[in-house]
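Researcher: Good morning. I'm working through a list of sequences from a screen, and I'd like to move beyond sequence-only analysis. For each chain I'm collecting a predicted structure so we can compare shapes side by side. This is the next one on the list. No need for commentary yet; just the structure.
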Amino acid sequence: MSKTDPLREVVADLDLQTDLWWLAMILAGFLSTFLAAFAFPGAGSFFAWLAVLVRLAIAVGISQQPFGAIFGRLLPFALVAGLFSIFGDHMLVNWTERAQRVYPDHTGVLLSSPLYIPLFWTCLIIEFGYTIIRLYGLAAKNGGGDLPFYGAMLAGGVIAGLWTACTDFWAVKARWWRYDTDGVILGGACALYVVIGTFFIFCAFLPVFRGYLTCAGSRVFASVRYGLIYGIVIFVSYIVAHMLVEHKI
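Model: Good morning. C-alpha cells for this chain:
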C-alpha cells in the first residue's frame, strides 16, 4: 500500500463545497484581523476572540455535515495540537534575549499565552492543513511518485510563512501582541524567526497528518497522539528558527 493512499482517500472527498467553507473560515479571520488593525485598534482582544470563535464555529458545524469529513478529521487533531502549542508560544514570550513576543498586561493567560491562542492555532492548522491537502490533491492528479507529496509540503510551508508575515503585522497593529525590537523584525512589526518557524511547522504538517490518518485505535487516541507530536513540532520549529535568526536562545 502506498504511503500516500490515506491522503488520496481524503482528497477524494474535497470539492467546491468544502473549498467554499474553507474560504469562509479564511475570510472570517481576515476580516476580523483587518477590522482590529485598521478600524478598531483599541478594541483589545474582542476581535481576536471573534476571529477564532467564528472560524471554529464554521469548522465544527461543517464537520457534522455529510460533505465535511475533511473538517471532521482535521478538527480533533488541530484542537489537541492547538492546546500543546502553548509550550511553543511560551518560548516566544520567554526567550532570554532578542525578539520576545509581548502580550498586553491585562490579557488572561494559559502558561504564557492569551486564552485564545490554543484556538487560534486550531484554526490555523485547519486552514493551512486544508490548503496543503488540497495542493497535494491537485499535484497528485498531474504526477505520480513522491513529488506531489514533497511539493505540497514545501508549498504549504511557504504559503503559511508568507501569510504569517502579513497577518502578524496586522496583529501587532491591532495591539494583540508586539515584539521587542532588538531582534530581526520585518517592517517594524513581524519577527523573522516567527515566519521561518511557521514555514518549518507547516512543512511538517503532511507527514504528521498522514500518520494521524493511519494510526490504529480510536479517533481520540490518534488525535491526542499526533496532536502532541505536532505540538512538539511547533515547539522545536520555533527554537530552531530563533537560533538560526537570533543566534541564541
